[in-house]
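hiii so um. not sure if this is the right channel but i have a protein structure encoded as tokens and i wanna go backwards to a sequence. like what aa goes where. can anyone help
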């Protein structure tokens, strides 16, 4: 049996604080407690997936410390480390294998005229595509099934100084695997298309 001074009941009972009430324990000496209504609300008592309103909804935040100076050891209970923006610090490593290819399309030139046409078919195995304008006209490209015009295109490849001199810049792309359409600013455009797979 334990004795307890129920200060919280003094006003309700209108008795002095010297009155002692009897508390009940189990056979192991653990105190029986009757929780008041509303206990256990908020925090982890919320339903998973329930709506959350910032600065309004009740929840249990993760406990962390910014720039901790102590070193944790095995078998200890530690607080998570945060940066100054309250982002959780995570230690890890990352490695990536560069994409390589040893297969290229046959070397050739493609004639491009003033009527738009496909210069490269879609290929899901493509790793890179390379275009160079080796003619003396401007060649406009459209990625996908659209039709390029002289004013609507995705990329324009400027002409070189003279045919086949290789002075014009190269357009290279290692993301696009769809078809490519082209049109020339004048007849007789020449384009070198290389596809790596």
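sure thing!! here u go:
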């Amino acid at each position: 049996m334990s004795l307890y001074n129920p200060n919280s009941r003094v006003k309700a009972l209108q008795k002095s604080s010297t009155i002692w009430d009897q508390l009940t324990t189990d056979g192991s000496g653990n105190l029986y407690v009757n929780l008041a209504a509303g206990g256990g609300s908020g925090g982890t008592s919320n339903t998973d997936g329930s709506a959350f309103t910032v600065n309004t909804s009740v929840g249990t935040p993760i406990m962390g410390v910014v720039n901790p100076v102590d070193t944790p050891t095995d078998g200890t209970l530690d607080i998570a480390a945060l940066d100054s923006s309250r982002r959780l610090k995570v230690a890890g490593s990352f490695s990536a294998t560069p994409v390589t290819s040893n297969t290229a399309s046959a070397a050739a030139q493609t004639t491009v005229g003033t009527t738009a046409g496909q210069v490269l078919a879609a290929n899901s195995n493509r790793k890179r595509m390379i275009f160079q304008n080796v003619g003396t006209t401007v060649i406009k490209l459209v990625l996908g099934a659209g039709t390029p015009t002289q004013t609507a295109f995705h990329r324009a490849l400027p002409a070189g100084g003279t045919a086949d001199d290789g002075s014009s810049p190269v357009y290279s792309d290692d993301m696009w695997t769809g078809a490519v359409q082209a049109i020339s600013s004048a007849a007789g455009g020449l384009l070198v298309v290389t596809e790596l797979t």
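oh and The mean pLDDT is 84.
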